[in-house]
Amino acid sequence: MVVKTILMLMVFIVPLIILNTGIVSSVWLLFTLYVISGFGMAGIGMGIMHDAIHNSYSKNQKVNKYLGYTLNLIGANDSVWKIQHNVLHHTFTNVEEADDDINPPFFLRFTPHTKRYRIHRFQHIYSWFFYGLSTVSWVTAKDFVRMLRYKKMGFFQEKSVFTKELIKVIAWKIASFTFVLVLPIIMVPLAAWIVILAFITMHFVTGLLITTVFQLAHIVPTTEYPLPDEDGLIAGDWATHQLMTTSNFSPKSKLFSWFIGGLNYQIEHHLLPNICHVHYRKISHIVAETAKEYGLPYHNKHTFVSAVGEHFKMLRNLGKPDNLRIG
Predict the structure, then answer these.
(1) Residue 174 covered by a domain
(2) At 78, is the secondary structure helix, strand, or coil?
(3) DSSP 3-state assignment of 35?
(4) Residue pair 257/276 in contact by the 8 Å Cβ criterion
(5) Share of the chain above pLDDT 90, in %
(6) Which end of the chain has fewer beta carbons closer than 10 Å to its terminal beta carbon, N or C?
(7) Is residue 234 a contact partner of residue 241, using CB atoms and an 8 Å limit?
(8) Is 326 a member of any domain?
(9) Closest Cα to residue 36, out of 212, 202, 256, 204?
């Protein structure tokens, strides 16, 4: 974890430092450095901050706290993420309206219970483009939108707490945007629109990687989308719910698993979110055997490509009027 942390932070920061020195005057080098930084940003998001904010990076809570700030470093916010991901997504996985990960804009449909529009017929084609733009939306507007929504939900009940968190969000974003975009615009001897386009390209790389990895774990034909009953309760126990709504993929690819922070073992992560991802591979055999013993599902796709194919099918299926599930 320490080696990965140092490496990913360097991959993200070093290209930006080079850009901020003003020595880069080539368009292709500008884009190359931003793209490299995008891979570092994705590595930070999936392999560092994710464990830290789950308090699974280290037994030392101060280490988790400060490494959780790496999310703020790349332009998002750790406080908002804790609510959106740790609380809502992990508690209400694949439950419409409760799980913020499946509450996208109207032109995307991730559950069979969401209202269908005619445009959804083509979402299996255009979704990938919006996946690429997801982190641009995240670091600019989405954190503020979610803060207001979570305040209405009761997460920031005291006005002083909300104001304090809002100031922190704004301060971190100013710092991040200054380092990642404003200084390069000033220092790089190229037109500002070229630098902005390179910045968007960096985020497109990050957004496409991160969003695709997370989508493959939940938006596939084999996972379920349970609805609460009249009392607002979900049938069954929490652990069974996680097995029904989550899927693994590409379990044999060690390098790929290392880069994406073990998120190909999403079942293990959802059942045991307080355990560091470096242990998921060994734990997965125990979880799979236990699920089989009790007659519970253990969804798994053998390769990343096959998982992408299943997600593609699911998007296409959810765009059809009849909502037929594809197995």
Answers:
(1) yes
(2) helix
(3) helix
(4) no
(5) 87
(6) C
(7) yes
(8) no
(9) 202
Phi, psi of 300 (to 5 degrees): -155, 130
Distances in whole angstroms, Cα of residue 203 to Cα of each of 133, 182, 211, 312: 7, 15, 11, 22
Q: For residue 174, count other CB atoms closer than 10 A to its CB.
A: 11
In a domain, 287, yes or no: yes
Q: Which residue type sits at 13? A: I
Per-residue pLDDT of the chain (327 residues; tens, 9 = 90+): 999 999 999 999 999 999 999 999 999 999 999 999 999 999 999 999 999 999 999 999 999 999 999 999 999 999 999 999 999 999 999 998 889 888 889 999 999 999 999 999 999 999 999 999 999 999 999 999 999 999 999 888 788 889 999 999 999 999 999 999 999 999 999 999 999 999 999 999 999 999 999 999 999 999 999 988 877 778 788 999 999 999 999 998 999 999 999 999 999 999 999 999 999 999 999 999 999 999 999 999 999 999 999 999 999 999 998 644 444
Q: Helices 192-215 and 27-47 sit at what angle, rounded to 10 degrees? A: 30
Is the Cα torsion angle 300, 306, 311, 313 positive or negative in sign? Answer: negative
- Residue 91 in tokens: 């508690």
Domain carrying residue 303: 2-318
- Alpha carbon 163 to its chain centroid, in Å, reads 26
Domain count along the chain:
1
Burial of residue 200, with CB atoms counted within 10 A of its CB: 0-12 exposed, 13-18 middle, 19 or more buried: middle
In-domain check, residue 115: yes
